[in-house]
Amino acid sequence: MAPPREKATRTASVAGAVVPMVSARSAQGVPTEPSGPPEATRARARRSGRPGEKPRGRAPPSRAEDRAEGAAAPTREGEPPAAPGPPLPSSGSRRQGSVRATRERRPQPAPVEVPGPTESPGPLVPNPGPGLRETAPGAWKLRAVLEQLRLSRREISAAVEVVNRVVDHLLRKLQQGCESEFRGVGLLRTGSYYERVKVSAPNEFDVMFKLEVPRIELQEYANSGTHYFVKFKRNPKGNPLNQFLEGEILSASKMLSKFRAIIKEEIKNIEADTDVIVERKKKGSPAVTLLMRKPMEISVDITLALESKGSWPASTLNGLPINRWLGVKVRNDMRRRPFYLVPKHAREGSGFQEETWRLSFSHVEKDLLKNHGQAKTCCETDGVKCCRKDCLKLMKYLLEQLKKKFGKRKELTKFCSYHVKTAFFHVCTQDPYDSQWLSRDLELCFDKCVTYFLQCLRTEQLQHYFIPTVNLFTPDQIDKASKEFLSKQIEDQRNNGFPVFGAF
After folding, report:
1. Per-residue confidence (pLDDT) for residue 487, from 0 to 100
2. How many whole angstroms separate alpha carbon 27 and alpha carbon 97?
3. Lowest-confidence range among 206-210, 377-381, 384-388, 393-397?
4. 386, 362, 381: which is closest to 441 by C-alpha?
5. CATH code, residues 155-315+337-360
6. How far is CA 221 from the centre of its chain?
7. What is the pLDDT of residues 49-80, one digit of tens each?
8. What architecture does CATH give domain 69-137+372-503?
9. Which Pfam families match (predicted)?
């Protein structure tokens, strides 16, 4: 791997820490010293708008979305301390430098993001500003990939019809059946399809069957931050969940077993034109997976979730760092929403602690992706289109294609789309402004996401977005060799123009 390019840097002291500051021209990959023949030097001077040269007229935008840019919003106070993950790298990667150095541009301002009084000191990341006027060379390829990844309306309609029919049948059975412990169950649609970031084909769906459990008490398991024992503060005789208690603890394994048995029995009563089976239980998985084989092959993960309308656990206090991105009010509103617990068991030695439940915020993740813009009109019909979700789709597809390419390699088995999505949320936090995600800057923004994910792999640091004390890339979660292998494959793809995308 070639050594990284040296950059001209200066340092600033923020809250007692010395932090590198990258110049605007260096961060954008623009040479700081003229080179080449005099004609090239004069051409660069005209493009850069240097003193003594007559500025060129500004070309009119080619699309409606190029007419407006999100103004940089003022920094809001009250942001929780940022997760101590790897810094968002400057956008001057080796590959980007050659792209940007050849692009005509106007002079770039060099504002920086300065942490507010309650934020932890972090890297000062240059704000790209409103200077990028042309589509980056190579962006056409990414747009072609995205076009191929668009789900067919006909396929979507057919898949959703089958899934809804099966899910609605099971939901009615649970709500009206004699098993009174599940009568209060409701439906919560989650996952990439409902987040509108599904790639390839509409062949995988995730749904939650939520069950409200009032007046519960959580006991954190082994300082994990994510896994808890569930107890009832008051347990009157008529509690229908009594049968699932192990002493005072609500047993996740018992409840999941009964839930699975009901579903397995009920699918026998589904119409004959839908061939559906329950797949074998995966060790440690909280979901009951259905495989539908007619009229098309579709996988549906149904997860039982306990719904609590109490305050979020203390481990989440500094999580969800969206104050500068979506606003303090949005964050407060989201934290007033219920949280969920799914029967995902904590690891205990070489096995699992089967009575534990894991926190889930998939409903909030769906809202973050649905309302992802700082401007409330972002990506709406009359608003400016950003490329946030496009970048996430490409990141998910990159991992998906690499796993297909190296299907028999064990190094990639533990990586999943949730790792990509978590890293993407952190990039959104560090680049909160809509002007930093303009649609025409797709290639630059995608490279920014790739670079951040590579930093996470190399430093073995990927903080949980809602529970910042939890690192998803610890050695006991994913071994170092696997992270090095994935890092090398992504680097090779980036250096060679992502040939794996040519397989779409």
Report:
1. 97
2. 9
3. 377-381
4. 386
5. 3.30.460.90
6. 26
7. 444 444 444 444 444 344 333 334 444 444 44
8. Orthogonal Bundle (1.10)
9. Mab-21 (PF03281), Mab-21_C (PF20266)
